[in-house]
Amino acid sequence: MKVTENAVVVIDYTLKDNDGEVIDSSEGAGPLAFLHGAGNIIPGLEDALLGKEAGDEVQASIEPKDAYGERVEDMKQEVPKELFGGIDKIEVGMQFQSETDAGPVMVTVVEMGEEMITVDGNHPLAGVHLNFDVTVREVREASEEELEHGHVHGEGGHHH
To answer: 30 and 78 share a domain?
Structure first.
């Protein structure tokens, strides 16, 4: 079976940046299972896997616009330290959910000052060119429940 819309796809992958540094890998964690076309993975990788089948090896170079988007500098801002009341120790790299007019957004602490903390609402991989080495392990039809829920159940997928 080939990778098509609404197929369950199981892959092993290694993700690197343009400098060859490994960002993420399924090695040690087990393969990743996703429902193709349901937005479970970035659009650029979905496009690269379309039409592939079990056993295929794929190298995909994904531009930021087809991954986590370009960095938006307006999503980086200084906020008063007192907004983090009740948290004893705040450090660079910590992530928090922030309520915005557009709904909840994850922000990362990028700089600490005496009175102000700089947070960044961009995804950590925004603006990064992504390079995938993928091996397709399995392609199968999705169950009715998987289609209804919009994600894969079982090994490598979601567990209810």
So the answer is: no
Rounded to whole angstroms, the Cα distance separating 72 from 69 reads 9
SS3 helix, strand, coil % of the chain, rounded to 5? 15, 40, 45
- Does residue 106 lie in a domain region? yes
Domain range spanning residue 21?
Answer: 7-68+126-149
Structure confidence at residue 23 (pLDDT): 96
Is the same domain home to 116 and 103?
yes
Amino acid at 44: G
Judgement on whether residues 13 and 48 belong to the same structural domain of the protein: yes
* pLDDT of amino acid 156: 58
* pLDDT profile of the chain (160 residues), mean per 10: 96 96 95 94 97 98 97 93 86 89 89 93 95 98 92 67
94: CATH? 2.40.10.330
Look up residue 82 and give its DSSP letter. G
> CATH no. for residue 37?
3.10.50.40
Kindly report whether the global pTM for this prediction surpasses the value 0.85: no
Strand partners, 131: 16, 61
Q: Give whole-number Cα distances, 65 to 29, 44, 69, 125, in Å.
A: 27, 9, 4, 11
